User: Fold this.
Amino acid sequence: MNKKNYRALVLSFLLFFTSCSLVGEWWYERLDKIIANYFYEYAEFDKKQKEEIKNISELYHDWLSKKELPKYRSF
Assistant:
């Protein structure tokens, strides 16, 4: 592979993976699980507590999508 093709490939790769829509959507869809897992790392929880953490993180995800994301889209 010559230098020109290599640069084009690297540039394409960087543009693809730094795309806000691609990364943002991937991050957003996993946000509730990321939040729940964040709390699971700090202590041991029983089944009922884990369910409560899961419910709270899902409520946060719903709130964010209904109340805050429309504000970002309006920019």
Notes: The radius of gyration is 19 Å.
